[in-house]
Amino acid sequence: MGYRQAVQGQSVPRGDRSPGGERRGVRSGWRADAKRSRDLFAAFLAEQSDPDRFYQALATDSAAQVDSWHPLTNALVVDVGGGPGYFEDAFAGHGADYICVDADAGEMRLHGRTPSSRTVHADGTCLPFGDATFDVVYSSNVAEHVQEPWSMADEMVRVVRPGGTVVLSYTLWWGPWGGHETSPWHLLGGEFAARRYTRRYGRAPKNRFGVTLFAVHAGDGIRWARQAPEVEILGIVPRYLPGWASALMRIPALREVLCWNVMIVCRRIDSAGRRRVGR
Ligand SMILES: C[S@@+](CC[C@H](N)C(=O)[O-])C[C@H]1O[C@@H](n2cnc3c(N)ncnc32)[C@H](O)[C@@H]1O
Question: What predicted TM-score, i.e. pTM, was given to this entire model?
Answer without folding.
Answer: 0.89
